[in-house]
Design brief:
Layout lengths: L1 H62 L4 E4 L7 E7 L5 E11 L6 H17 L4 H15 L2 H6 L1 H8 L6
Parallel strand pairs: 1-3
Antiparallel strand pairs: 2-3
Helix pairs in contact: 1-2, 2-3, 3-5
Length: 166
């Protein structure tokens, strides 16, 4: 009789352990799917925000009458701004042009950086990469709502090296 009760207790514990294990697997699977879905939704939102920002930057080029062209090859550059500079170092942006690699056509980062050069040259006569990044970051923050800035926070920091500046 004692052996039978011990066998019943062992069987009951085994069944309870097995049920707990199945519940653990079930909840892990559901949580994993929920996390994947949240990640996918956030990525979709980031992509929509990037597309929105890119379109705003393209519109800005049009507003400033800056020709924008997409090229297959720009050497080692992802993009550049072409402008005139005389022998005295004076910069003329009247006939400037921005060129961006075709593979970056749907992402805002390269175009924002090149517009950052335009602003830095026009406003401060500064042609450094750092100032272009700073101007690009400020421009993007002006064009984006607070929520959109949160969506693209990592991109803004990575592409415009803004650690600690915001």
């Amino acid at each position: 009789m004692v052996k039978f009760i011990a066998l019943l207790i062992f069987t009951a514990l085994f069944i309870i352990t097995f049920i707990c294990f199945l519940l653990y697997l079930y909840f892990t699977l559901i949580t994993s799917k929920q996390i994947e879905k949240e990640i996918q939704l956030k990525q979709e939102q980031r992509t929509k925000t990037e597309i929105n920002l890119n379109q705003k930057l393209i519109n800005l080029c049009s507003l400033f009458s800056i020709p924008l062209e997409y090229k297959n090859d720009l050497g080692t550059a992802a993009g550049h701004i072409l402008y005139h500079q005389d022998r005295k170092g004076r910069i003329f942006l009247d006939n400037c042009k921005i060129e961006v690699l075709e593979k970056h056509q749907n992402k805002p980062w390269v175009l924002a950086h090149e517009i950052g050069h335009y602003i830095a040259l026009n406003k401060l006569k500064d042609d450094t990469e750092e100032m272009a990044d700073q101007m690009a970051n400020e421009l993007c923050c002006m064009l984006l709502s607070e929520n959109e800035q949160k969506d693209l926070e990592i991109g803004l920091k990575v592409y415009f090296k803004q650690e600690g500046r915001r």
